[in-house]
């Protein structure tokens, strides 16, 4: 009874702390609940829509000041090529629009840009933010004042194959309808799988691969306001939530009316029922995603049977239209018979940037320099579709979820190995209980933490092999009776370039600066190892200073020297070299536990790129990688003696820093680096 009471009190303290640290937590929970209720009860049109509609009838808009039409066409430069079906699309529709603006997301060859300029004005931009960001970019370039002079603005992306027959009948039909904006098909109301939609659910919405906005909406100030206040779309789910499923309701709530050309309102109708839309509704386009139904591999991964209606669609296109069927075959071959690839799933959902950088992005870079295609997805955004045609799946630091269970089952059927990756000993409470941070958690917090650890272990057991970052971690993981591959932490190209640029301006001040860099809140006990030595050094050397960057509670023993201690908050990796270049000796103490023995040598790598000598505990990865006295100093107990040696002999310090720099540049960078993991991948690729 007492234990349950303690747990109850602990839960109260935990949630109080959460609400203080995250004041929007309660609000978000309430919004999620409201969203579920709205999904059940929300009508097609809100009261706000009818109220604003009535206002517009009482204050009718002036007639359009022009009859010109404008098209903004967004092209994704896949593999840096202009696919022929996109050029055919422009060839056929160019006469239906008075002005065409083409936005290229990515890079195309100069010859291909010249081809596009035949049709209109071309903008080339980085492939960021998805189609919605490209549309916004073009509208800002054109200016909203100019857009307001058009009768209709069309926003179209390159996922449409066609036109199978002239589009003018569709345009004429929709011109006769008294609406403010329209599209080809609606998507159904459904639960908010993005968990980001402001309505708490996904409302009925026009599919945004083809949108037509008439003058009545174009000239209204709310149209420009929508785009000016649109949030950044850095992920696919954000693009869906912030624009694709929001656009329709946003303007309908302001009294504007929408319509669709197709009568088929089932969600993803262009994908699921392309033949109905083309044959019965006279829709002149096919979505590229519908082509996937030609692939037996795709259908097998998705657990679906061959849809013979799609074969009938191809036959219909071949016999009843003038569209060259060979272009459909090209789309299939370039998009869905793509080169075999590797899928990496980030279980941290990029919530811990330093982990994502070293274990996900750097691995992607390493494998790409070896010639492999790599697709990275966060666990929140990953789907089975992205794994079609992959030959290896890597799951990094993810808890067990129903989706990952299903993915592992499908991968087993397809004969694709799934590897679980971890860079810390986080799969058993026997190890995590050794951490002082974990020991300091409340009863409720400890219960949540232990459940996460247990879930990591359950997920690992579902996979076929394990990826680790150190030899000691490999030894520990071999008890699971699965293949274990070492893939050490490496320096990325960007980190090397950034470090080199900083290195060229490195100064040599008179004082001696020691540096301690803490990447997480678990390092307090490690820092305590060197506190007595630091006190002795402060007393012995007036020129000694200490720089601390990151998460750390400063021990009381150092209070008398606070004027000689410089403290900085945790900084992203891009800014870290600036801080490292200002120190003379890098401190890397680790308490000797099995957990710490499995940690990697990241701190040594980062300091070595700035030619800074590292003094580290003689355990784990430091012992594996550092040659003591040559590329760093390894310490078992006497930190003071070793540090004094580096302080008293600057040339010795400089020699170690230079040797470490050369070794890391030669052996520890991502570019074409081969290891146990890459050798396994090479064998699987040939299989």
Can you offer a commentary on this structure?
The longest helix has 20 residues, at 2-21. 45% of the residues lie in helices and 15% in strands. A 7-stranded mixed β-sheet has the order 3-2-1-4-9-6-10. Strands 13-12-14-15-16-17 form a 6-stranded parallel β-sheet. A 6-stranded parallel β-sheet has the order 20-19-18-21-22-23, sandwiched between helices. It is built from 33 helices and 23 strands. Strand 22 (613-617), helix 30 and strand 23 (633-635) form a beta-alpha-beta unit. The model is unreliable at 61-65 (pLDDT under 50). The protein is elongated. It has 687 residues and is of the alpha/beta class. InterPro entries: RgpF. Pfam families: Glyco_trans_1_4, RgpF.
